[in-house]
Amino acid sequence: MIVLEDSFTDEEKRGFYKAIYSRRDVRSHFISKPIEENKLSKILHAAHHAPSVGFSQPWNFILIKDQATKKKIKESFDEEKRRSSQVVDEPKKSKYLSFKLEGILESPVNLCVTYDPTKFGPFVIGRSSIPEAGLYSVCCAIQNLWLSARTEGVGLGWVSILSNEILKETLQLPEHVVPVAYLCLGYVNEFADKPDLETAKWLPRLDLKDVVYYEKWEDKENSDWKEIQDLIQTNLD
Ligand SMILES: Cc1cc2nc3c(=O)[nH]c(=O)nc-3n(C[C@H](O)[C@H](O)[C@H](O)COP(=O)(O)O)c2cc1C
């Protein structure tokens, strides 16, 4: 076995997986304690060290604490939630409407993560065939941010029930800049064990064995991959 000097110790590995498995999308349970700016800065640094197509780093982070801005965004959420509920039939509609799906006003810091396709453009290595790779890069930054926040004990909730037009107007984004995520951050008094939507029996977590295919689409039983099939079956979470 090759042991690299900079490989992770068992304790470090445990910390890494703890962040992954205990990360939650948080919409309630925010407490009023402000987030220290050195912590916020650490979290933003972690986000900024995400991978990006052609090293284009196409993200920007807009920190928001102004209550008037938050109120405008919350109004957009209320309107979009109402609008989206019209495409769901009862009894799901009432259930959907009863869910708490944002913490815009209660969280001390809101953060909009944006995508700027013009950064270092127009030629970015790796983006010519799949233009969406730029957006994927921003999502990598958001995941880093989310895991770093969890590691620092800060809750984070992603709000996508919003009008991008209102977001762009309120935050004065240039026309070519895309808002990718609107996030609510703050200390919380608990991180739930499971996703809220799983607890509410909205959707279950799928079994890993049902989402892993071998060699081609929908092949779940390829005999060249027997060992991992058995491991995935017995080692669900
Ligand atoms: C792109 C994206 C958009 C999301 N939008 C919302 C949202 O508008 N409101 C909300 O309450 N949760 C939102 N979530 C959180 C998901 O509901 C949550 O990640 C999922 O239920 C699994 O729960 P967990 O993150 O706690 O593991 C969003 C998550 C992602 C990745």
TrEMBL record:
<keyword id="KW-0547">Nucleotide-binding</keyword>
<feature type="domain" description="Nitroreductase">
    <location>
        <begin position="20"/>
        <end position="187"/>
    </location>
</feature>
<keyword id="KW-0520">NAD</keyword>
<keyword id="KW-0521">NADP</keyword>
<keyword id="KW-0560">Oxidoreductase</keyword>
<keyword id="KW-0288">FMN</keyword>
<dbReference type="InterPro" id="IPR029479">
    <property type="entry name" value="Nitroreductase"/>
</dbReference>
<dbReference type="GO" id="GO:0016491">
    <property type="term" value="F:oxidoreductase activity"/>
</dbReference>
<dbReference type="Pfam" id="PF00881">
    <property type="entry name" value="Nitroreductase"/>
</dbReference>
<dbReference type="InterPro" id="IPR000415">
    <property type="entry name" value="Nitroreductase-like"/>
</dbReference>
<dbReference type="InterPro" id="IPR050627">
    <property type="entry name" value="Nitroreductase/BluB"/>
</dbReference>
<protein>
    <submittedName>
        <fullName>Nitroreductase A</fullName>
    </submittedName>
</protein>
<keyword id="KW-0285">Flavoprotein</keyword>
<dbReference type="InterPro" id="IPR012825">
    <property type="entry name" value="BluB"/>
</dbReference>
<dbReference type="GO" id="GO:0000166">
    <property type="term" value="F:nucleotide binding"/>
</dbReference>
